[in-house]
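Hey L., structure's done. Input below.
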Amino acid sequence: MIKFLLNNLEVQVEEGSTILDAAKFYGLEIPTLCDHEGLKPFGGCRLCLVEIGRAPGTKLVASCTYSVEEGLVVHTDTKRVVEARRMMIELMLSTAPYSKVLQDLASLYGVKQMRFEPRNEECVYCGLCIRMCDEQMDAQAIGFQNRGYKRKIGTPFDMKSEQCRLCGACMYICPACQLRCQGPQADTALCNACLTMDPTCLDAFDEIQCWMYDAGRCGTCVPKDSEQAKKS
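Output:
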């Protein structure tokens, strides 16, 4: 067993576990799009970023691909982490603004603006469809093409694939294929309709404080001597 610090608590997990595995085991919710049970870790969406190390030498890593080490110090919900997640959500929403999954994440993390011009590509390049087709359907009918801003997902040479069995698994697992409630003709880029509570402890403590609960979503915890507490 490997012992390490997870949000200031000493925990232990089996050797070979990732930080994401450990967080799930101890009931901590870390958002992710590209990680899925039954598929190999990919580390593409970057939503599962956590902060490791001790100040001032901390860094952000993808928790789904980073293996736990003895004595590792991990913080899953610092202000730096949450801001990075918000930026990733904002970026992905610019490519798939009609995704219900992304709209719900935007509400959950308090993303109230989208500073990037919507491209409506309806793909966040999480690679779920490719890995599902390869690892579970054993078809390898689709894959990534090109690089940079020209990157896309398609069949070899954009021709009909003889390996495709039309099983629909790629659409089933795709986070961009779940249409937002307002449909494709929504008036705004962000709905902010389902989840609207902001955690107050990020500004007060620089880190979400909740442990055995839906971390930071209560919106009530502040220092007793803070200005906000005096006003209340």
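The chain has a mean pLDDT of 84. Strands lie at 2-6, 9-13, 49-52, 59-62, 73-75, 143-145, 152-154.

-- N.
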